[in-house]
């Protein structure tokens, strides 16, 4: 049974969301604010964290940033904010996905299932270790190193890097990367890919991820 931490300051949304996830077979730990949630997080292990952004005592951005210093568990942000900059800030701090209120619980379930699937090792393609230059990616253990040093990536960053490394030299448009890294249908700004690529280049300290002007991105040999 997968364990999910749900952080939401609206008691009605918290109750309904928790009850819905429980009915779908998940173990749920609810929390009404960021400060309380961080204390819970430090004392327990979670497979997924769902959090609101605008919360008392500690907002979702701060909570996300703190969690990312200690865990790479998938983080799904819930928010009433619709501004593009707000969404990008969440991704830059390490969030894996984003859903705006009001939302369909069927859509929420699909997002949860998708994020949890990405936590499980993928050994079906026969490619366990991928290496390009000084970058190494293990598709079974989800470990990434650059120059021999371990690199912590978010789930989306890992998925994008894995796709690029499995297809060196092939150009992927932003839409293609979105389709591969987000395996469900919903509208999302392609600028999110720009942010993830920027983060990958910085974390890996590499110039192997090339921008192909007017087309997209590719992994250089």
Structure description:
It contains eight helices and eleven strands. It has two domains: 3-116, Rossmann fold (3-Layer(aba) Sandwich); 129-219, Winged helix-like DNA-binding domain superfamily/Winged helix DNA-binding domain (Arc Repressor Mutant, subunit A, Orthogonal Bundle), CATH 1.10.10.10. It is of the alpha/beta class. Helix 2 packs parallel to helix 3, helix 4 (84-92) packs parallel to helix 8 and helix 6 crosses helix 8 (191-204). Strands 2-1-3-4-5 form a five-stranded parallel beta sheet, with helices on both faces. Strand 4 (75-79), helix 4 (84-92) and strand 5 form a beta-alpha-beta unit. Mean pLDDT is 86; it is low at 121-127.
Question: In terms of topology, how is this protein built?
Answer:
Elements: E1 3-7, H1 11-23, E2 27-31, H2 34-43, E3 48-52, H3 60-68, E4 75-79, H4 84-92, E5 97-100, H5 105-117, E6 129-132, E7 135-138, E8 143-146, E9 149-150, H6 155-166, H7 174-181, H8 191-204, E10 209-212, E11 216-219
Parallel strand pairs: 1-2, 1-3, 3-4, 4-5
Antiparallel strand pairs: 6-7, 7-8, 8-9, 10-11
GO biological process, one term: regulation of DNA-templated transcription
GO cellular component, one term: cytosol
InterPro entries: CheY-like_superfamily, OmpR/PhoB-type_DNA-bd, Sig_transdc_resp-reg_receiver, WalR-like, WH-like_DNA-bd_sf
